[in-house]
């Protein structure tokens, strides 16, 4: 019992072929969309690469770009193929190519689904958040080493300015790290010595923040230093107390998390949509292929022909696939021709 | 004697018409590009209008939008005529309008050159408006509680961060005004509080040391600091120069694009004249030319027509004596 069996007349086949050509061209466009979304994510990851610690996030744009390019190429051939398949003579030229073409199509659609699953998974499982947490902590600790890694300091400053955030979760995070480089501290100054002695780790800790924490929308000049002596009332939230000081209200983990989350959500939605569309195209090409194959058996180009998704039911197809694997190893296939030994008479003798 | 006569067979005419049709549609694309560049320029001027004291002239972007639309319309019409030129029935209805169309196109090309010239010349007015606007911006920086000026601080800070600049000519402009709001610190000398300090938006993120904003001219106020050798601490460029170079590069590239489009346009205008000149009999060979008579004769004819238009009385006066 075939799966999805349907009878197609000659005009049905022509219409199907024409519709599939159009759909293939649309798929080329969607493939290009996937590539561009992948490139956009790669550019955004590259922009703040110093504050992200996780490498697995880079796999998403790679998968997207490769599957997008593959989809473009495949659907271009698919458009040509479907154009030819409406005619019986031209179909015979493509007959051998069709099976591997279907195989590669299925592989590509799986790739697109993988990209969607990856971005959804990274977003939902908290890997993104953990990567930002680790990356930002490490970046804030290395902020002062500008002589060795000026790029990191510049990027962290630009993150805070462009993403409107300060510190990892709040501006007080800067009080716990030494962010002023030792070479700019006057060790002979007693106040500086006091600071060094005031904590166990021997770091220069102060209640001040870098200039990139300042909010231009605040009505007064930014107070970067002596922030502990400007206490905010307890009833004010973090955002409100930061704003009252003239600093950014958000933490960078939250800001960057929202930014990348929205990109990954967009990617998973786009990839799922493209996957659904591609499956539709694969289904259509399968119907066209089987209808033309049964037409070849009938011989008359004008007559109706049967089309299906799977020739036998699902279980039988799985059995056939299993036995295909076995026939390379087994010797007990009854269809193999073997000379009859013993007393059995040859049928043709009678 | 026609100018530059060329013999056309049917195939040659078909090829010429097809090629011209493509060119006309490319020109429609260029028209759309000019239109969108005009809109982009207008939006940019609006965004920075506070830096220009809301005094900026929107003449150039408005002209660009208009010319973009006109280019699209003229070239779409030309493309339609080209498409119909191979069918004598359809072409017959367009034939009487062609002469006016070509003169219109020629006039439009001249107008495009004027617009391109304006793009280059108006840069001076942008420069002057910027100088005035930035001076006022720095003066009103602290007035965050005055209605109408309360966003000046934010706009100026964002501009300095985005364009990587400080002050009008350079950072010393900030030393001459009190930019710290009276609410934060009360004045001493003449009620003004002038310091050698700059706002935080002048800070350069690419500096290896934390930003030094205050007591900039006092080398001893900071450890291992010398104003003369310190280049990375704050932005050294003035905002007038930064904003002007941004706008002038935009205007220059738009002007150059218009000139290039104009040159290309004139070239295919001449070829289209050749094709449209004589397609009466579709099958046989025909002659095409640029101008029906030589350049001198055409100019003389045009002058005579113009004179007749301006002074019709002279013709009637001349006739009267003969009637009498």
Automatic annotation (TrEMBL), chain B:
Annotated membrane topology: Multi-pass membrane protein
Pfam families: Tetraspanin
GO biological process per UniProt: cell adhesion; visual perception
Coiled coil: none
InterPro entries, A to Z: Peripherin/rom-1, Peripherin/rom-1_CS, Peripherin_LEL, Tetraspanin/Peripherin, Tetraspanin_EC2_sf
CDD domains in the cross-refs: peripherin_like_LEL
GO annotation, cellular component aspect: plasma membrane
Keywords tagged on the record: Cell adhesion, Disulfide bond, Glycoprotein, Membrane, Transmembrane, Transmembrane helix
SUPFAM superfamilies in the record: Tetraspanin
Record's protein name: Peripherin-2
């Amino acid at each position: 019992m075939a799966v999805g069996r349907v009878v197609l007349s000659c005009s049905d086949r022509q219409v199907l072929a024409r519709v599939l050509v159009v759909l293939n061209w649309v798929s080329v466009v969607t493939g290009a969309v996937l590539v561009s979304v992948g490139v956009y994510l790669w550019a955004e990851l590259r922009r703040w690469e110093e504050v992200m610690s996780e490498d697995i996030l880079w796999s998403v744009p790679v998968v997207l770009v490769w599957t997008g390019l593959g989809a473009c190429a495949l659907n271009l051939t698919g458009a040509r193929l479907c154009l030819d398949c409406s005619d019986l003579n031209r179909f015979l030229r493509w007959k051998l190519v069709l099976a591997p073409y279907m195989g590669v199509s299925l592989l590509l659609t799986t790739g697109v689904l993988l990209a969607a699953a990856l971005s959804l998974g990274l977003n939902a499982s908290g890997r993104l958040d953990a990567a930002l947490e680790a990356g930002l902590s490490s970046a804030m600790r290395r902020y002062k080493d500008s002589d060795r890694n000026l790029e990191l300091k510049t990027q962290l400053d630009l993150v805070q300015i462009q993403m409107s955030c300060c510190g990892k979760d709040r501006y007080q995070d800067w009080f716990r790290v030494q962010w002023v480089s030792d070479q700019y501290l006057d060790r002979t100054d007693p106040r500086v010595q006091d600071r060094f002695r005031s904590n166990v780790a021997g770091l220069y800790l102060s209640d001040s923040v870098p200039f990139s924490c300042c909010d231009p929308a605040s009505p007064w000049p930014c107070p970067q230093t002596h922030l502990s002596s400007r206490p905010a009332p307890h009833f004010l939230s973090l955002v409100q107390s930061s704003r009252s000081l003239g600093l950014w209200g958000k933490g960078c983990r939250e800001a960057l998390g929202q930014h990348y989350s929205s990109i990954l959500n967009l990617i998973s939605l786009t990839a799922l949509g493209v996957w659904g569309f591609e499956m539709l195209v694969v289904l259509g090409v399968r119907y066209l292929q089987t209808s033309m194959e049964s037409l070849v058996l009938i011989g008359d180009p004008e007559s109706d022909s049967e089309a299906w998704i799977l020739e036998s039911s699902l279980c039988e197809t799985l059995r056939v696939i299993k036995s295909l694997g076995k026939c390379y190893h087994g010797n007990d296939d009854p269809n193999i021709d073997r000379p009859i030994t013993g007393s059995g008479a040859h049928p043709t003798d009678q | 004697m026609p100018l530059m006569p060329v013999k056309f067979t049917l195939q040659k005419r078909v090829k010429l018409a097809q090629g011209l049709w493509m060119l006309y549609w490319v020109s429609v694309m260029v028209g759309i590009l000019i239109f969108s560049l005009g809109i982009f320029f207008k939006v940019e001027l609006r965004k920075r209008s506070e830096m220009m004291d809301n005094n900026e002239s929107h003449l150039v972007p408005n002209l660009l939008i208009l010319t973009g639309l006109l280019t699209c319309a003229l070239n779409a019409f030309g493309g339609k005529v080209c498409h119909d030129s191979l069918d004598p029935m359809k072409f017959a209805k367009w034939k009487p309008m062609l002469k006016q169309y070509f003169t219109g196109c020629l006039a439009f090309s001249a107008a495009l050159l004027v617009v391109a010239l304006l793009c280059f010349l108006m840069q001076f007015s942008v420069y002057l408006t910027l100088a005035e606007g930035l001076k006022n911006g720095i003066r009103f920086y602290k007035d965050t509680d005055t209605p109408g000026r309360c966003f000046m601080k934010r706009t100026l800070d964002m501009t300095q961060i985005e364009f990587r600049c400080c002050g009008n000519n350079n950072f010393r402009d900030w030393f001459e005004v009190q930019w710290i709001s009276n609410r934060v610190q009360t004045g001493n000398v003449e009620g003004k509080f002038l310091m050698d300090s700059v706002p935080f938006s002048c800070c350069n993120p690419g500096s290896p040391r934390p930003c030094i904003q205050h007591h900039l001219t006092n080398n001893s106020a900071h450890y291992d600091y010398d104003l003369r050798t310190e280049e990375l601490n704050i932005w050294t460029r003035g905002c007038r120069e930064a904003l002007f170079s941004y706008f002038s590069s935009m205007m220059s590239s738009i002007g150059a694009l218009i000139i290039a489009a104009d040159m290309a346009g004139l070239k295919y205008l001449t070829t289209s004249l050749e094709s449209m000149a004589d397609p009466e009999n579709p099958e046989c060979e025909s002659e095409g030319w640029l101008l029906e008579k030589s350049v001198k004769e055409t100019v003389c004819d045009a002058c005579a027509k113009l004179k007749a238009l301006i002074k019709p009385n002279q013709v009637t006066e001349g006739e009267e004596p003969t009637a009498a």
